[in-house]
Design goal:
single chain, alpha+beta, 3 domains, 13 strands, 23% helix
Length: 250
């Protein structure tokens, strides 16, 4: 994977080798996108005599990132490399033995700083901020009583941690259970009570149907058929009247 800001720095004779490709990408940016093209480049890892060369095919991606390129699993297998995230190293075999690459901590910190300056949130006149320009309808209201210093710190935190927020339903999938898991504290000695099915107003029913459809498509919910047990959803308006949230009354 090669990001566009790195691709444009290549010589013209090299960029001319890029081929058109139709490969959908997900998880690299907020919305599913398409690659700009593919290009095969000669990649050299290590220094003589502990170096190895291979031709790797890269997909060029137009997205903000603190990285220039990402070696995916197929590229790592080409080099026969073994990586260690904990030790920030990569080992791979060469004719002279086993080569080891170490991460440069200073270079990583420098890249993070550069990335933070390019994704600063947009600040509106009413005090609200737009952290992610890909989702213009998702704004954050900042308290007017906060000091300028506190607001600046808040802006920097949001800009540096955009990837930890769920901007769309599909971003909520894949969270390990040891990080986030909800449990119901139910007394096993109390028998459950079956609820009577309750109807809702048409506009609430329409909104709830759309929300459930998004959760089912993202794999968060799945359809089951119970003839006896029914949990009635309860619609609650947001304080700013921009929409509703819904909960299940158990």
């Amino acid at each position: 994977m090669m990001y566009e800001h790195c691709f444009v720095q290549l010589p013209e004779r090299v960029k001319e080798k890029m081929k058109d490709t139709l490969v959908p990408l997900a998880s690299f940016v907020n919305d599913p996108s398409w690659s700009e093209g593919s290009i095969i480049l000669e990649v050299v890892l290590g220094k003589s005599p502990f170096k190895r060369t291979a031709h790797i095919e890269f997909l060029v991606v137009k997205a903000n990132s603190q990285y220039n390129v990402i070696l995916v699993r197929s590229a790592i297998m080409t080099f026969g490399a073994v990586t260690s995230t904990v030790h920030e190293t990569m080992n791979f075999p060469v004719l002279a033995g086993i080569a080891t690459l170490y991460a440069e901590r200073g270079r990583v910190i420098e890249c993070v700083k550069i990335n933070r300056t390019t994704v600063m949130p947009i600040i509106h006149e009413d005090g609200s901020i737009l952290p992610n320009t890909s989702f213009p309808d998702q704004k954050i209201i900042v308290g007017s009583t906060l000091t300028l210093e506190t607001k600046d710190k808040l802006y920097n935190i949001l800009a540096a941690n955009l990837d930890v927020f769920a901007w769309q339903v599909s971003d909520m999938t894949g969270v390990p259970h040891h990080i986030a898991e909800h449990k119901l504290n139910i007394n096993p000695n109390i028998p459950p009570v079956c609820q009577k099915k309750r109807g809702m107003a048409p506009e609430r029913t329409k909104f709830l149907r759309e929300e459930v459809r998004n959760l089912v498509e993202a794999g968060i919910l799945r359809e089951v058929k119970y003839q006896t047990w029914v949990a009635n959803p309860v619609m609650v308006k947001k304080p700013d009247n921009t929409g509703c949230v819904w909960i299940l009354r158990i």
